[in-house]
Design goal:
Elements lengths: L1 H9 L15 H28 L4 H24 L13 H25 L17 H5 L2 H31 L6 H25 L2 H20 L12
Helix pairs in contact: 1-2, 1-4, 3-7
């Protein structure tokens, strides 16, 4: 479902139409976006749970999820290098480069999926009694730490979603610096990959919650600095 929805979402036009003045209907975009995020959610939740079950050691889990984060960043890095391939005239995203990216992602995903399916252990999933999984809503509402986490993560998710939805439009349409988006994204991803070693080492000495707070603080600081950029005044190095 993820592969099929990805293709139709990111490649809505045929190769013959890529350079033509074609439009995509709202219904088309809505349906394939719906299936794309449905498939992504169906994948993401058990994949993270699976990783948590592969080891009972906190140290091993830190390493496991650091590698997972590195894989996500590396995949994003590969995505942003597509426009720099010699087959394209311009180093920017076009319908054609997006089409190449989604097809390349599918080719990488299939062997990785097969390898996970065949060779990665199932983990240490616990077998519960028949009714043990049924949790009352009132019990959840009384769990203060859990509710605080839900509320914090709800605001984090909303703000992260707003940023991801608007960042390209902000740089391209508002600041008029769309040609710099790809190279800037590559710089950011490289910084993320390099910082993984720092954060992973920090988790050996400091509480994970405090490290998470530091990371969110730095992200908020970056958002505030973004808000101070103005069209005609902001340059490449400001971004």
């Amino acid at each position: 479902l993820f592969l099929v929805s990805s293709y139709f979402l990111f490649t809505p036009l045929t190769p013959a139409q890529l350079d033509a003045s074609e439009s995509v209907s709202v219904a088309y975009f809505f349906c394939w976006s719906f299936f794309f995020y449905l498939a992504y959610t169906l994948f993401e939740i058990p994949h993270q749970s699976w990783g948590a079950e592969l080891s009972t050691s906190p140290e091993a889990k830190n390493s496991l999820f650091s590698w997972r984060a590195g894989g996500i960043l590396l995949g994003s890095l590969l995505f942003y290098t597509v426009p720099f391939l010699p087959v394209f005239e311009k180093n920017e995203f076009t319908p054609e480069t997006i089409r190449w990216a989604v097809m390349g992602s599918g080719l990488l995903l299939l062997p990785a999926f097969y390898y996970c399916w065949q060779y990665v252990p199932s983990g240490g999933a616990k077998v519960f009694e028949q009714d043990a999984y049924k949790i009352r809503l009132t019990t959840l509402l009384k769990n203060k730490p859990l509710m605080l986490f839900f509320i914090a993560y709800m605001f984090f998710g909303l703000s992260q979603g707003a940023y991801l939805a608007i960042v390209f439009i902000f740089i391209d349409s508002y600041l008029g610096m769309g040609e710099a988006f790809v190279s800037l994204s590559l710089i950011g991803l490289l910084a993320g990959i390099l910082s993984l070693f720092i954060w992973r080492k920090s988790m050996t000495y400091f509480d994970k919650k405090n490290i998470w707070i530091v990371g969110k603080f730095l992200q908020i600081l970056a958002f505030i600095l973004y808000s101070r950029l103005l069209p005609g005044q902001a340059g490449y190095w400001d971004l």
